[in-house]
Write a structure and sequence with these properties.
The structure is a homodimer. Chain A has helices at about 5-15, 30-45, 65-70, 75-85, 95-100, 115-120, 125-140, 150-165, 195-200, 200-210, 215-225; strands at about 1-5, 20-25, 50-55, 90, 105-110, 145, 170-175, 235-240, 255-265, 265-275. The first copy, chain A, folds into two domains: about 1-175, 3-Layer(aba) Sandwich (Rossmann fold); about 185-270, Pantoate--beta-alanine Ligase, Chain: A,domain 2 (2-Layer Sandwich), CATH 3.30.1300. The longest helix of chain A is centred in the middle third of the chain and has 16 residues, at about 125-140. Helices cover about 40% and strands about 20% of the residues of chain A. In chain A, helix 7 crosses helix 8. The first copy, chain A, is globular. A six-stranded parallel sheet of chain A has the order 1-4-3-2-6-7, with helices on both faces. The first copy, chain A, starts with a strand and ends with a strand. Chain A is an alpha/beta fold and about 280 residues long. In chain A, strand 9 and strand 10 form a beta hairpin. At the A-B interface, strand 5, helix 7 and helix 8 of A face strand 5, helix 7 and helix 8 of B. Strand 5 of chain A pairs antiparallel with strand 5 of chain B, so a sheet runs across the interface.
Chain lengths: ~280, ~280
């Protein structure tokens, strides 16, 4: 496994790489969810291509400086996990390499990114799009794997790929959960023991609510399920069209019930898909 | 020479192309200035690569619908010129292919694009960046050639390439002029005979003014030279730092004296470079 931080060195590796090259972009603090992405990437290269992992805590997608500062960083353990998983190249750039002073060009998304995580985190998805496109350009990857847990991020990235004709195939990987149902997230390690014990409530509440038969009933049930917690504070709770991410008027099309909740200053997200009713 | 309009067909050509592939992005209505770009492209491929020309009147970079509607379109003649010049592939997409309905992702530049042509044409350079990046992605080109005449466009594109790590080398080609000094432009054919006869005044005024010894003297001279015309109306006239495109405070650094003038509804641009005074 090669670990590379500099742009010139990366460029040399990119020119010489075997294809297909599958990129798994991450912000580090790798857990079993990321390793599922890596395993999917390994299956896609079919023993001829290469799996690359990028580890970069992207400052421009954080709206709260405290969240950026508190984001877990575990680079030594991350590299061991990548090595054990058979990753070919790990790209670990510095912030100063990724963002020149006086930078003035960004990628902006003006539709899918305005609700849900985007409403509460202005600039977040523009920051995601910008860094993902930079990583695509820097690595020259053919395929990139993203977790379905961040379903809005996936929708925004797919839109970017379509609208900018980005020559990268986007593959999604199902959410990996702890045995008690909590979606794996790098932020989970920051939960207090009490909050950690309560947090599976989020997925339970969404899954139970998804069985209701009307938009109002789904939302009421989910809200009640979450608010029964002595700790969880709802950041958003929405039932949106799976395609447009606009609020659902009915349950006649594929929908997504999505929520973000705060446990103290730790923000967790989760969602369930709801298929159209007969 | 292959002429291609569809994305799938282009993708197949892109995969099979010889390298380096040099792209000359144009809006058609090709003239001697464009052919200079093509000749430069030919010299860059050194008999092993391919020269591609794109012809696409990009609607999202026009701020005035009348300007878009009036933009000259001479596709038959364009293709003949390309064929004669030894171009390998001409890409002529339809608007509906380039811009999906409901598109929501664009590239935005927030510094270099705010003055000069950008001040008078809001959204223009975001439209340029977006289409150029799309063309880079669609063609997979290694090098792209642009005319130095559109020096602000060149500066904005170079900034995009830097800030988004676009793996394309940008090469610039000197402005080609008519014998009387008028910079070649697809818009020149729309000038009335009287306006055409007067138009070389723009370059003369800028060149004369560039010999003055202070910022104020340069700007006064240029303004007087242009306003002596019975037809020309100044859209902007600015002396800017060659690097930042911000207004010059002195003549101690490389600068650009740039103007846009209207002859009727035809807008012409030109500029001269001013080297630092001793």
């Amino acid at each position: 496994m090669i670990t590379v931080g500099e742009q010139d060195e990366l460029r040399a590796l990119s020119i010489a790489k075997a294809r297909p090259c599958v990129l798994v972009p991450t912000m580090g603090a790798l857990h079993e969810g990321h390793m599922a992405l890596v395993r999917m990437a390994k299956s896609l290269v079919r023993d001829v291509g290469e799996v690359w992992v990028s580890i970069f805590v992207n400052p421009i997608q954080f709206d709260r400086p405290a969240d950026l500062a508190a984001y877990p960083r575990t680079i030594e353990a991350d590299l061991e996990l990548c090595e054990a998983a058979g990753v070919d190249v790990v790209f670990t750039p510095q912030v100063s390499m990724m963002y020149a002073s006086g930078r003035s060009v960004t990628v902006t998304e003006t539709s899918l990114s305005k609700r849900l995580c985007g409403a509460a985190r202005p600039g977040h998805f523009d920051g995601v799009c910008t860094v993902v496109l930079k990583l695509f350009h820097l690595t020259g990857c053919d395929i990139a794997v993203f977790g379905e847990k961040d379903f809005q991020q996936l929708a925004v990235i797919r839109r970017m790929v379509r609208d900018l004709n980005v020559p990268v195939e986007i593959v999604e990987c199902p959410t990996v959960r702890e045995p008690d149902g909590l979606a794996m997230s790098s932020r989970n390690v920051r939960l207090t023991p009490e909050h950690r014990a309560d947090a599976p409530r989020l997925h339970r509440a969404l899954s139970t609510a998804a069985k209701e038969q009307s938009v109002d009933a789904v939302l009421l049930s989910a809200r009640a399920g979450i608010e029964a917690s002595p700790f969880a504070k709802i950041d958003y709770l929405e039932l949106v069209d799976a395609e447009t991410l606009q609020p659902c008027m009915g349950l006649d099309k594929p929908a997504v019930l999505a929520a973000a909740v705060f446990y103290g200053d730790v923000r967790l997200i989760d969602h369930v898909r709801i298929m159209p009713r007969e």
